[in-house]
Amino acid sequence: MTKKTLVNSKLICVALNDKKQLAALEGTFNEAPYKKPPTQPVLYYKPRNTWNTDGATIEWAKDFSGQAVESMVVGASLGVVLGKETCRVSPEEALQYVGGYTLVGDFSLPEESYYRPDIKGKCLDTTAPVGPEIVPADKISNPDALTVTLSVKGEEKSRFDLSQMERSVAELISKISYIMTLQPGEIIAVGFAGDRVPVAQGDQVEASIEGVGTLKNTLGGA
Amino acid sequence: MTKKTLVNSKLICVALNDKKQLAALEGTFNEAPYKKPPTQPVLYYKPRNTWNTDGATIEWAKDFSGQAVESMVVGASLGVVLGKETCRVSPEEALQYVGGYTLVGDFSLPEESYYRPDIKGKCLDTTAPVGPEIVPADKISNPDALTVTLSVKGEEKSRFDLSQMERSVAELISKISYIMTLQPGEIIAVGFAGDRVPVAQGDQVEASIEGVGTLKNTLGGA
User: Fold this and answer.
1) Number of folded domains in chain A?
2) Does pLDDT of B196 surpass 60?
3) Can you tell me the distance from the alpha carbon of A32 to that of B157, in angstroms, rounded to the nearest whole number?
4) Does the predicted TM-score (pTM) go above 0.90?
5) Is A164 within the bounds of a domain?
């Protein structure tokens, strides 16, 4: 990898933060074993081996026998970059802890269920590009007013207004800061629009937010 | 924290790697939503904010309203420290990638279910002490022959022979190396004995493996 990752020590992703997706899943959540929708943000990590950069190739995943997997999917999210140590802050003060904004791509295997933590599908090498740069927080007056678009081979496949998130950027920072202390440079991907977008080997993928930039990546071959 | 963490970039824990615990849970696993036991290692992370050292105090957790939680639990595991980059290695060659061994403590909130990824309960600040040192791999001829003991206030509460693990150290390294590339200094906690041990504020906890050392920690007050 030629460029250096923009992530410092931790990349947290928020799942199920799309009001429409939550509504669609309501029936499932009301069945066993939970019998109710999640009451806290549902989080997962993209660990260091996943971190990647704008312009980089995303490795096409292989299965346990070394064969190329049949399908991969992608989602894109606003990335909130913490500017200072953040522990138990209120939603009202949370945005003061933001240092900047960027884009996070999340390439993975298709999800099989919403239950068991899917480390195998989510933590593939090189599958979390972040970039193209960190835009200082003072350039973005209201992060919840942004729109994330995702294009594959030049064609728009997904468009998500952050106003449709179940929890706002400030609410998420606050909630997560009660779960763990966050450090400067750590990044929260605040939410991906409901359905992930299928991609194929060699596809060019662009994630874009006006004022934050465009993150471009290519899927590798097998 | 006065001492420096022994972890480099990643601490992976393996859940449900105790044959006896798996057998006890068989009924649960055969119900919805899975209808079968896990077929791959069940993994979770202890992220950077959790990393702690031998001799250090573990913070007593607070709930969202700032009140001390009622109960915390602890488990102890052998920690396998990778010695070199490890990607898609076979079980036969896996132990050649080990740089050393240490102990990992995992303090957490009691588990409520085996389904939803429990980031809130597992990723509390300071809850993953590692140490007291990294013993070079060549000092341990067979890691699967070790026994992990856990004492609270000087009384032994748990004893686990690693020969009772569902997957051996070599099998785990191999399996995980097919999921993600591991780097030198990253640590795998290979498995905790079935039931976690309850602890109270002020308790002294000792995790011990003959030839690897004793990891001592104290629970803080509220």
Assistant:
1) 1
2) yes
3) 33
4) no
5) yes
